[in-house]
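Long-time lurker. I teach an intro course on protein structure, and each term I like to show students one example going from raw sequence to a predicted 3D structure in token notation. This year I'd like something fresh instead of my usual example. Would anyone be willing to generate the tokens for the chain below so I can use it in lecture? Attribution to the forum is fine with me.
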Amino acid sequence: MNLERAVRLYVERKLSFGFHYEYSCAIHRSLLRSIGDVPLRSITPRQIEAFLNGPRTGNSAWHQKYDTLERFFRFWVSRGKLKRVPMPRAIPKQPVTFVSYIYSRAELRRLLDATLVRKRRCRCVIAPETLRTFLLFLYATGVLVGEAVALLRRDIDFSKETITVRSSYPGRTRVIPIGPAVHKLLSDYLRSRVRQQHRAATVFVDNNGKAISRPTLVGCFQRVRKTARVTRHVHEVYQPRMHDLRHTFAVHRLTSWYEEGENVVVLLPALAAYMGHVGIGAMERYLSLTPAHYRRQVTELSAPLIRKRSLKR
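-- Reply from a regular --
Happy to contribute to a lecture. Here you go:
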């Protein structure tokens, strides 16, 4: 069996089970372009190593590619098409030093103001009103950028004050409640002149009435962020992202619970479900990002949850 057929059959199998497999599929296709449509049995660890060490491949991406290809080759070993897995020795994983950016409320106001300040100068295909509403929606609900992009008009039920959030991950589509502020935000946007001129099924559209694309959205956001002068440090590689609005939503919610004396141990699982997380483990990162003066409370309150999770493993 040659590599091209093996990739095609493997990807088709994954998709038939409902897996979200676009990123991994891209890795397989990239390997195919790199070494050609050669027989599976002829592939050597040196070829795989050369592919993994390609340009602009950081430690995290290297290991993602490695794990994806190792599962692929192990599958074909189990099917008798290979005698061994042609993977090179794995390099050590480097500790993750990246920390999500938590916007202050003053920075959020500057971001939102900057979307309208750029109205006359911005050549982006996304209207300023659309971008402003989109950013507010991300912060107010904590949904993923991709989930907000995929939001359909029929997903919003104003009578029940709920939104159906469609996730690209199997089993994570959920219905979340919305308050008066989000209700007004979306209803005002849908009635606005910018939105009324288009009959698209998606809520957030570009100036041509099409669903906004991720690359265009990221480009517009980064220009607005620079206009608002929201930055870590001038020479920092990782600057604040749209995705950090999700982290900011969670941290601000946790902080308000601490200030109001709420029982975080009881409320944390509900917040996890609201954000589409499976299990409580993913919430630990948000607990660690709360303000320093809550750090002791974070440790004490999260300890029972962490111990419970450890016992289940």
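Some talking points for your students: Residues 59-78 form the longest helix (20 residues). Confidence is low (pLDDT under 50) at residues 309-313.
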